[in-house]
Design a protein that fits this description.
The protein is mostly helical. The protein contains eight helices and two strands, in the order ααααββαααα. It has a two-stranded antiparallel sheet with strand order 1-2. The radius of gyration is 21 Å and the shape is globular.
């Protein structure tokens, strides 16, 4: 009887893992396509955008921290960071007291590029928005993804979730500022005599 429970648990685990792999791959493909549409006019790719976003959120992370939080190999993080540096979006630095690690910071041009990309975002042009719009219409809110967040936290730790939540908070604040400016400009235009 114990073997049946163990076999069932193994079967359940295998099926869940396979389904998670298939769903994750499909979701990542949709996300990657969305980011490519968003970043292509600016001449950067998904990895470069993700690196710049992490650097923006973390301030002055090491390349190894970018690799860990960006779920990429350290050589990938380093090579794409070098490309971003050649274009003037980031600077790679060594600390005087620790020459082993390379750190990365955004330049003003990199910060401006991220803001331009953020302001050009149009949810109607994204696969993800199209995929969840029915849920948003039915429930009035976007899915919270709490189970997915819990799985990621258990695999990668709290740091990745904290970075993601901090990033969302800074984007939220930027969008609030943009909406306030839009409302102010709209009121000024409406109050002007024709």
């Amino acid at each position: 009887m114990v073997n049946q429970v163990e076999d069932y648990t193994m079967k359940e685990a295998v099926l869940f893992s396979l389904k998670m792999m298939q769903m994750s791959k499909a979701l990542w493909r949709a996300v990657e396509e969305d980011v490519e549409v968003l970043t292509k006019p600016y001449g950067i790719n998904v990895n470069e955008y993700y690196i710049m976003g992490l650097v923006n959120d973390l301030g002055k992370p090491s390349i190894s921290k970018i690799a860990a939080l960006g779920s990429m190999h350290i050589s990938t993080a380093f090579n794409f960071s070098k490309k971003l540096q050649r274009r003037g979006y980031v600077k790679l630095l060594k600390e005087e007291h620790d020459k082993r690690n390379t750190y990365i910071i955004l330049t003003q041009e990199g910060t401006n590029l991220l803001l331009d990309i953020l302001h050009s975002y149009n949810p109607e042009q994204t696969n993800i928005h199209k995929g969840i719009s029915a849920l948003k219409e039915a429930y009035g809110i976007y899915p919270e993804l709490l189970e997915l967040e819990a799985v990621i936290r258990l695999i990668y730790g709290r740091d990745l979730i904290n970075v993601a939540n901090n990033s969302l908070q800074s984007v939220r604040e930027s969008l609030i500022e943009k909406e306030d400016l839009f409302r102010k400009n709209k009121k000024e235009i409406a109050s002007k005599p024709i």
